[in-house]
Sequence to fold (309 residues):
Amino acid sequence: MDRFRLGLVLHPTRDVSEVIAIVVDWAVRQRMSLAVRAEDRHRVPAPVEPLPADEVAAASNALIAIGGDGTMLGALRSAVRDPKPVLGVHVGKLGFLVEVEPPDLPRALDRLAAKDFTVERHSCLACDVCGDDVVAFNDVALVRQPGAGFVNATLAVDEQQYGYYRCDALVVSTPTGSTAYSYAAGGPLISPATDAVVVTPSAPMAGISRAVVLSPEETIRLELRPGSGPVAVEMDGLVIRDAATEGAVQVRYRRDAGLVVRLDPRRYQERNQLKLSLLDLPLLPEQLRELLPESLRRQLNRRELPPPR
Fold:
């Protein structure tokens, strides 16, 4: 890899042309190479080299994920065999992984090229889904088909049977994924600094009814029981198997499987705290004040000063 090359990972449907233009303009001025998967060649200008999808990450020094959390997860999965730093550019809604807004992108690219950033290491779930090997950075879920019964599955940890579930969905998540589907199903928030796996049932009707937190060293096996309704298996929200009525999902925890670029870790954490507060964790007024732009904080401080005597 002679020249510094960035691989572009694009949101599949959103218009990301404005962000692509910023990246291409920067790359031309810096004499950097750009690559994108061949399927997206019609979405990028000529300087961007199209490559087979499974070669983009391997041929790049770093990846730029342009979209939301789903795009970031896709970029991390694409580089799981040889992890590369992934910088997330926000062109989405409520995202927990992405950090950079489009106006801040040129400066972020300068810092990326200069290696002036920290790396946030992410674990993944290495899963055997009925014989197919897949990875998930947020979660893997067994989900019932509406009107066709329920998820009915047993739980085994290191080959020791622990019980069964009868529920609408069964979610196995990483600490990063604990803020996603697992959280919506009533699971706990797990610190990203913790190595753990969470198994959370959604709308349980029988069997295990609470979230279970397991060690990263343990192997988890969920096996459909006879009489289970047809189940879809989702990996990071993508359906990878549909209408299964038998089979098993085996899950192992893998550390340091993904590298996320952080330019301002403290500010990123504060923004995520605010996003969580919008969901279910209300902040104190002084914490909300700290998240305001500095100019607004100064205005509020002036207004609250006592009048001169």
In short: The longest strand covers residues 248-262. The two ends are 69 Å apart (CA to CA). The helical segments are 17-30, 69-78, 105-113, 181-184, 265-279, 285-290, 294-304.
